[in-house]
Amino acid sequence: MARILLSILLIVKLTSLLSQDIPVTVRLFSQQKVSRVTLTVQHESLDLVCDSLPAVTLLPGDAAEVNATPQGISIWHKGKSLKCRRQLLVVARREHSTYKIQVYGNKPTQRLYEGDLEITASEGLLRLVNVLNLERYVGGVIEAEAGSEHTLEYYKVQAVISRTYALNNLRRHATEGHSLCDGTHCQVYHGMPRHTDLAEAAAWMTRDVVVVDPSIRLISAVFHSNCGGQTVNAEAVWSKPEGYLVSCTDSFCVAMPNARWEKCIPKTYWEDYLDTHTTLCTDSAGIRQMMRIDSVRAVPLVPLRQDLKLKSTAFEVRVEGEQVKLMGRGFGHGVGLCQEGAINMARQGYRYNEIIHHYYKDVHLVPRTMLWFFEE
To answer: In what order do the strands lie in the sheet with 260-266?
Structure first.
């Protein structure tokens, strides 16, 4: 009887956990200064809730202009003005209510969003935070980070690592009042997928699956475009080593578009850069990644890549007359999953779990709702 009761309690707990959706709060247009936007309803309807005033309903095709003012927020809709002193809430009345956000001064955009929207104003600027379900967010990230012309199996890979990354960084912007931003600082998110249905399908087909290390902790699921044939250890780029972020040979990416690159720069510029940025090898403690210039000098590669806008830090140098040619491989920091390698593996028939295990060592794929079980 005790075993039956325990089984029933376990089923009840599992059912309640499985039914829980995690809301994600994402700062939109986080890299821009936004003072005016236009909201246009695409499907279903929205409610505009301004302070304690009665809600204003927007139907498909309706638009509202939202402006930051010295007193707060002003809304212009169908010839009428509405003032908010604290916050404007845009509430989706149906599960699939969608709307377009056009930022004043930007080129016309076709980005579509779903879920709720919290808008506040400060010092003449608007702050927009999208509140939506985790899996909807993951679907949008997949297309923004990976593009729209890949296989379903690759999108499953991107879904799992994007979900893991999001859950592992939900408090990254906690002090600012939201979970994540929509730029490369977190993960690129441009709203709903617009060019392929496979992105959302992959999110739901891998629903809740995350990657954990041997201690059942969410991994730092970092990825890059192309490793050039060899990924690198985490400590080659960052200061801390990580057991699952270790170098591996990757033959799958070497024939892909970003495997090789070249860049020519004036020889005088190159020499001036070395003169101002090289350090004596005896004083180079703490420089994890460096390039030998001659027998006594070295230059830190991570800043060099940023300064010269290089695709990677893996390159050779060749002097050709008054030019210096940099011949490199890969695109990105080279740690973790190589996207172009994973894309090719998926084309060759590898399953998404096999691809993930190729790039992250000694990890497990588990439902996030079962983490408590494995930990216990």
So the answer is: 260-266, 323-329, 315-320
CATH number at residue 65: 2.60.200
Show the tokens assigned to 151: 């296989």
Identify the CA nearest to 55 among candidates 31, 19, 78, 82: 82
Distances (CA, A) of 315 to 256, 296, 337: 17, 19, 20
Can you give the pLDDT at residue 279?
61
| The residue to which tokens 């070395």 are assigned | 274
Judged on CB neighbours under 10 Å (0-12, 13-18, 19+), 108 is exposed
In-domain check, residue 238: no
User: How many domains would you assign to the chain?
Assistant: 2
- In sequence order, what are the beta bridge partners of 92? 46
Q: Which of 133, 164, 189 is the last residue of a domain?
A: 133
What's the token pair of residue 269? 């510029």
- Ramachandran bin of 44, using left for φ above 0, alpha for ψ from -120 to 50, beta for the remaining angles: left
In this structure, is residue 283 part of a structural domain?
Answer: yes
Report the first-to-last Cα separation within the chain, whole angstroms.
Answer: 23
Residue 202 lies in a domain: no
Angle between helices 301-308 and 267-277 (to 10 degrees): 140
What's the pLDDT at 304?
85
Cα 325 from Cα 267, distance rounded (Å): 9
The DSSP 8-state label assigned to residue 27 in this structure reads: E
pLDDT at residue 148, as a whole number: 85
The token pair that represents 148 in the structure block: 């729209």
Task: Determine contact, residues 24/131, Cβ cutoff 8 Å.
Answer: yes
pLDDT at 291 over 60: no
Question: pLDDT tens, 118-162?
Answer: 999 999 999 999 999 999 999 999 999 998 889 999 999 999 999
Domain membership of residue 288 as a residue range: 260-329
Assigned domain for 185 exists:
no
Structure tokens at 197: 């249905």
Q: What value does the mean pLDDT of the chain take?
A: 87
Token pair 């009840």 is at which residue? 12
Q: Which of 99, 118, 133 is the endpoint of a domain? A: 133
d(CA 271, CA 285): 23
